[in-house]
Design brief:
This protein is an alpha/beta fold. It contains eleven helices and 13 strands. β8, α4 and β9 form a beta-alpha-beta unit.
Length: 328
């Protein structure tokens, strides 16, 4: 996709770029067992990619840092981004290897086993990222990666221009690493988007040790969010599923917004969808309360369909804004 030299991206994503290969099986096999595959599905995925596609659907100018191989999965990933209007100027093409894939096996009781082959997407080096294209972004949205790419994210963050806003959703992968392991990213983060479970996994033990908090003294999600905010993150958002979302910022604004309860079909990308709604709102200068509300609403629409098929379009959001906020 060719673009003008002076274009600015509202948001650039940097995270996993995988093809999700989902197999429905009669039973998940154990050691030396053989089971039957009942049906299979193949669709493009990746946390940051879901968020960037959600933002593109809402009319923002977006791009994506990821790496694909010259294979069928790479072609699907590239085509999916392009079809949703995501600019490909930051996409990296490998001469060898395979594109990332997530293989999921789900039995008839809904139990699942997941295997990840990150492929070339875990092999992004710092010198493969085009600084000219990157610096055209207003926001860089980072999610978890593996291998060399994780190290690249940590090296990249301190080098980013001060004018660039960094949004970070660590996911459970980075949360399990702990605060110290991802500190170069956290130190540069302006907006932290994290779910409640990941928040406790990431930093409960860290703050108990640092601040000498006894084990028998309760720490709430709000306590941890305030500590992260006080440590320099300007906006901390805690996603709480059906309990809604909590937000606090450096201006001491604090909100708790209930979820929009719907009949959910697939909650897999709910958090990614919330991120899209929140970052769209941030780009448009909306208040913290309005931004969290829109994040909740976008997530509620996404879970009504499989994968990201339910992500709303700009006209859907405009209609919601009129109906809910009584906007012209």
């Amino acid at each position: 996709m060719e673009i003008a030299d002076d274009i600015l991206y509202d948001v650039i994503g940097f995270g996993a770029l995988n093809v999700d290969k989902l197999y429905t099986v009669d039973e998940i096999a154990c050691h030396d067992e053989e089971r039957s595959i009942l049906k299979s599905e193949r669709s493009p995925g990746g946390s940051a990619a879901n968020t960037i596609i959600g933002l593109a659907n809402l009319g923002l100018t977006t791009s994506y840092i990821g790496k694909i191989a010259n294979d069928n999965d790479g072609e699907l990933l590239e085509l999916n981004l392009a079809e949703h209007g995501v600019h490909l100027n930051n996409l990296i093409y490998a001469d060898e290897g395979v594109s990332g894939a997530a293989l999921g096996f789900v039995d008839q009781n809904g139990e699942r086993a997941l295997y990840i082959n990150t492929g070339v997407n875990e092999e992004i080096s710092l010198n493969e990222i085009n600084p000219i294209e990157l610096n055209r972004g207003k926001i860089l949205h980072i999610t978890s990666m593996f291998g060399e790419t994780f190290e690249t994210q940590k090296k990249l963050c301190p080098k980013l221009p001060k004018s660039m806003i960094v949004s970070f959703d660590p996911g459970l992968i980075y949360a399990k690493l702990g605060v110290e392991a991802i500190k170069p990213i956290l130190d540069r983060t302006d907006i932290l988007l994290i779910n409640e479970n990941e928040l406790f996994v990431l930093c409960e033990d860290y703050y108990r040790k640092r601040d000498n908090i006894p084990k028998d003294e309760d720490l709430s999600f709000r306590d941890l969010a305030i500590k992260l905010r006080d440590d320099g993150i300007k906006i901390v958002i805690v996603k709480r599923g059906t309990k809604g979302a909590y937000g606090i910022n450096s201006d001491d604004e604090e909100v708790k917004i209930p979820a929009f309860l719907v009949d959910a079909i697939d909650t897999t990308a709910a958090g990614d969808s919330f991120n899209a709604g929140f970052l769209y709102s941030y780009v448009n200068g909306f208040s913290l309360e309005k931004s969290v509300t829109i994040g909740n609403w976008v997530a509620s629409q996404a879970v009504k369909a499989m994968g990201i098929a339910g992500l709303p379009m700009k006209e859907d959001l405009d209609e919601f804004l009129v109906d809910y906020f009584k906007e012209d």
